[in-house]
Design goal:
mainly alpha; 7 helices; elongated
Amino acid sequence: VNNKRSIIQISTMSNSAQGNIIQLEDGWNNVIKTGAIDVLERTLDNGFDTSFEPKEYIRIYTTCYDMCTQRSPYNWSRDLYNRHGETIEQYLSNTVLPALRDKSGQGGTILLNELKHRWSNHQIMNKWLKKFFTYLDRYYVKHHSLPTLEQ
């Protein structure tokens, strides 16, 4: 029984605890971007309910956590904070604004319905990104007196 517990504990340890360094581009592109951001955008654009399986959520959260707790020069907190902001800006510029512009000539009610839909999507995206980047928001943002991820 003790051997089984040890194996389980070792297999669930984060990469940082195991001594593995997560490079910025690897963690961002292979886990955060493809596993969270792209999935969120695709799901919201297709009008499906957005949720993540617990195992996938933990994988993304742990990657963010590990990337924020690695020792310098491999601590990517600032980079993840900046990329979080860039992700929101890109989504608003590339997806939300064109959709609103497309509806602007079709009457007030249609535009308001589209705005309501896009606002709802924006809130869902922010909710999930805040969950994935919780550690970043609690420690890096607070320590550097930066605007929170929701601001």
